[in-house]
Design a protein that fits this description.
With 448 residues, this protein is of the alpha+beta class. The chain contains 14 helices and 17 strands. The longest helix is centred in the last third of the chain and has 15 residues. The two termini are 29 Å apart.
């Protein structure tokens, strides 16, 4: 999928940012959870990478050691040993140690929140061990070649801060809104639904690239594209993350701005609740699938898109092209005739991010197709945190929900396991609540 992700001003200091080197980011998605054990989506990950450090870090498409000074792996890819950099410190000045890494890893596994899928089935409570103050070893229960690729998401928390605020939920209530990291930024103003401030860490242990660095950045909530565009052109923000494609021409001709459109792995799927009152019926799901005009989508959306050729994007290593549904109302009616509702007469909810046309438009197109089957589609806009909460269980999951997914490492496992393994229910990635024993077994097998 090609996605007009950001619009950048050539100068980072404009408008309200003239007094300081502060980057102003206009985003439509909240940062409502900064606990490394439970938070996961693009806005949360942006915050986690700013507030915390991990063993490895992505620089563009390349993965590089970060907290790690050196490492080795056994020939069977089960035992991974890492020597940590000894100058890394948390924001309170205490050292980032091997024990802190073990603590952070085990906390993720014990809480078993959305980020834990990366290590599901390949590790247990005995996997991580400190071999010294700055040497940690992971002994996996099964070989897992992409293990290094998962480690940029292993954000190391300060055990002392977590334990001081442990409560009865292993510190989740506290860390949801407060950081306990060692990263290049700390928290400033933190107003859910409004603004999130990041302040540069004085004397950051890893140093800064280049001759200077930002003093901080502000993630400002701007839910609609018009506000993002107007703020950008007025110099009130420097980046807009979800501008309307129809605004490209106006912005492109404005001096000092550039538009980037990069083909990547960002995929958009309409997930049907496989355990829902209506959508648990396979033939109804097939009828819905054939009621969408896929060929028209690239014409009506304001960004370049291609229809997925299968379960993974075509630019993904090892992708397989398979037969996919086509827009065919006759076939849709044939499948509908096999359901308990052969004449339609039912209403389904379609959930999407409020004021986000790229998720609303596919729903409107599906609404048109389903209307010809006498099925009503209830368009239900929601704030992103509320959408995530709805995916917590099949009972609260909507009939259909529009979800963007992005694999965190370059392996098919990163795209498939968290979406289609039944053990991963509870995350927005798995909001289809799909369950198939054979698929589970194959996904588990593919991890080895």
């Amino acid at each position: 999928m090609s996605f007009a992700a950001v619009l950048l001003g050539s100068a980072l200091v404009l408008g309200t940012a003239q007094a300081k080197d502060i980057l102003l980011y206009g985003g439509n998605q909240d940062i409502d959870n900064i606990d490394p054990a439970t938070g996961e989506n693009y806005s949360i990950n942006a915050a986690l990478r700013s507030l915390y450090d991990a063993l490895f870090i992505y620089r563009g498409e390349k993965i590089q050691p970060h907290l790690v000074a050196s490492w080795s792996a056994s020939d069977d890819a089960k035992v991974w040993t890492f020597n940590l950099k000894k100058n890394a410190v948390f924001h309170d000045g205490s050292p980032v140690t091997a024990e802190a890494v073990v603590y952070s890893y085990n906390r993720i596994l014990e809480i078993s929140g959305p980020p834990a899928w990366r290590w599901s089935g390949i590790s247990d409570k005995n996997t991580a061990k400190a071999l010294g103050s700055h040497k940690v070893q992971f002994t996996l229960t099964k070989p897992f070649a992409p293990f290094i690729g998962t480690l940029p998401q292993l954000f190391v928390v300060n055990p002392a801060i977590v334990e001081a605020n442990r409560g009865d939920d292993f510190g989740q209530s506290y860390l949801r809104l407060h950081e306990a990291g060692s990263g290049p930024f700390t928290q400033g103003r933190w107003e859910i639904g409004n603004v999130y401030e990041f302040k540069a860490t004085n004397n950051y242990w890893a140093g800064w690239t280049g001759k200077g660095h930002l003093e901080g950045f502000m993630w400002i909530i701007q839910r609609d594209a018009a506000t993002q565009k107007n703020s950008l052109l007025a110099g009130e923000t420097h980046i807009a993350d979800t501008p309307a494609g129809s605004d490209k021409a106006e912005i492109a001709k404005t001096p000092g701005f550039r538009i980037t459109e990069d083909v990547g792995f960002f995929t958009n799927t309409l997930k049907m609740n496989n355990q829902g009152k209506y959508t648990s019926n396979l033939n109804l799901r097939k009828a819905i699938a054939h009621a969408m005009n896929y060929d028209a989508l690239p014409q009506v959306l304001d960004v370049k898109v291609t229809v997925l050729p299968g379960a993974t994007p075509s630019n993904f290593l090892g992708y397989t092209k398979v037969a996919v549904p086509t827009y065919d109302l006759d076939k849709a009616k044939q499948y509908l005739a096999k359901t308990p509702w052969p004449n339609g007469g039912i209403t389904l909810d379609y959930v999407y991010v409020t004021q986000f046309p790229r998720e609303e438009i596919p729903g409107l197109m599906l609404l048109e197709g389903l209307a010809k089957l006498n099925i009503t589609l209830n368009m239900k806009p929601m704030l992103w945190p509320d959408m995530v909460a709805s995916c917590g269980s099949p009972e609260t999951g909507p009939d259909l929900i529009n979800i963007y997914t992005l694999p965190p490492y370059l392996d098919p496992d990163a795209h498939l396991y968290n979406q289609y393994h039944s053990g991963q229910w509870g995350s927005f990635n798995s909001c289809s609540f799909y369950k198939h024993a054979e698929v589970d077994a194959k996904l588990d097998q593919a991890r080895v």
